[in-house]
Every structure is written in C-alpha cells, then in structure tokens.
Amino acid sequence: MPILTSQIVWNVMLSGILSLAAWRWGDWRHWRRYHATILYVVVCDLLYNVLAYNHRLWVYQPNHIGINLVAMFINYPCTMLLYLPHYPNGHRRKQLLYIAFWVVIWSVIEAIYRAIDGITYQNGWTFWYSVEFDVLMFIMSRLHLQRPLLTYILSVPITCVMLFTYVPLRSIR
Question: What does each C-alpha distance from 126 to 64, 75, 81, 150, 171 come to in angstroms?
Fold first, then answer.
C-alpha cells in the first residue's frame, strides 16, 4: 500500500476507533462538564500551530492542517471524554498508572504515525519529547477539569518555557 494511502487510512481508522470508543465508554450524559477542558486542549494545540507556524516541531503528513483539524475536533474531544470521566480518585498510585496508561496509548499511536511517515519531527523535536509532552498534557487536562484558573496560570509559564526552548523568538508569529 503506498505511504500516502496508508497515512489516510490510518487517520480515518484512528478517528473512527476513538469515536466508537467515546460513543461506547465516554460520559456523554455529562459532556458539558468536560466541554471547557476539551476546549482548553484544542486551544493549546491551536496556539502551538499559530505561534510555531514558521518553526514547527512536528508536522503531520500528507496534510498537516487537515490532519490537525481532525485531531482537534474529533480525536481530542473523544480522548477527553474517555480519559476524564474514568480518572481514579484518591489513590496517587492509581492516578499515576492511569496517566501512564493514556501516555502509552498516545505513544503507540504516534509510533504508528512515525512508522508510516505520517508525522515528521523537525527542529530537534523527538519521539521522546512527544512522550514527555503527553504526560504534561494529560496532567494539565485533569488539572483543568478540577482547577481551571490554576491551570491557566500554570499554562502561561509552561508555554513560554516550551516556546523559548524549542522555537526561536524570531520565528514566533
């Protein structure tokens, strides 16, 4: 199967699997509870795409904008509707294992993207940076659900550190 075809098939399959999983196990009855956190995740990705437009760290193939929009409007909401309602309360060890479980899922998804040349890393970014980023994303999305104002306050310095570490100031739009 040509690479371009496998990339498109993979993207359609991924969105379909996430949609079906969210339909089956997502907390649709209380979707409004998760709505603001879904928007937070989408806006963070949108912000990355705007600010790092001239110095991207990763690029989806064959169409970064199209695939990223599908991720923003299908994959992220489905993931949050699966992740947030089932987050374990109380036991720190269970919470860490739960976050690790989701990081592994997203890492496997990204490894498949890499294997079919569906994502390329640029400007020093690596797969392992993506894994670290996923840890941060899942922690921050859970924190946003519980304490949105604190999450916004923490997001500013985290975003600045990430931008200044990986994106030259002259490249920021």
Answer: 17, 22, 28, 29, 19
